[in-house]
Amino acid sequence: MMEEKKKNQEDIISNHVIFAMTAGAIPVPVADIVAVSAIQYDMIRQLAAFYNVNYDADKGKTLASSLAGATVSRIGASALKAIPGVGTLLGIGSQVVMAGATTYALGKLFDAHFSGGKGLDNINLDSAKKQYNDLLSKGKEYAKNLKKSFSKDDVFKTIEKLNQLKETGAITEEEFIRTKEKLLSKIV
Length: 188
Hints:
The chain is globular. Mean pLDDT is 75; it is low at 71-92. The protein has two domains: 2-149, no CATH class; 150-188. The protein is mostly helical. The longest helix is centred in the middle third of the chain and has 30 residues, at 86-115. The chain is built from eight helices and no strands. Helix 2 crosses helix 3 (57-68), helix 5 (86-115) packs across helix 6 (125-148) and helix 7 runs antiparallel to helix 8.
């Protein structure tokens, strides 16, 4: 039972890392950061719910932003996309990894915090920043390995196209989720 519970919270983190990496591939500067941030906020909310910890969305956003929002390379990778051609390609590659790494670090940090039954009111920000920075290097490796394991089908582009189909009404939300889960299972 304990192993199953651990797998569930690991799934929350790994799925959100994949979602964040997909959002990191958005070619529009700043739009990628906004999308990645929304994914990270959702992950923190889901982890809090998983541990039955009281969650305040505004505090969660503030904490996540103060930890991950200051990551200079994350902002730089997004800005690099503004340079036509090579800048766009380099920016997307860098942002995909940084989006995954920051999401991983936040997920692991909040997972450890919430697993102790603690809520957002009793986070030591200085300690959390140090822990976040330690986890960020692990997150970069995790994201790089995940990126290397992508299939030739380019799962992220496929999910992006599926999302466009869902938004136009061509497929239902259920079809989108079912197909996305199948695609993600190929790379996780």
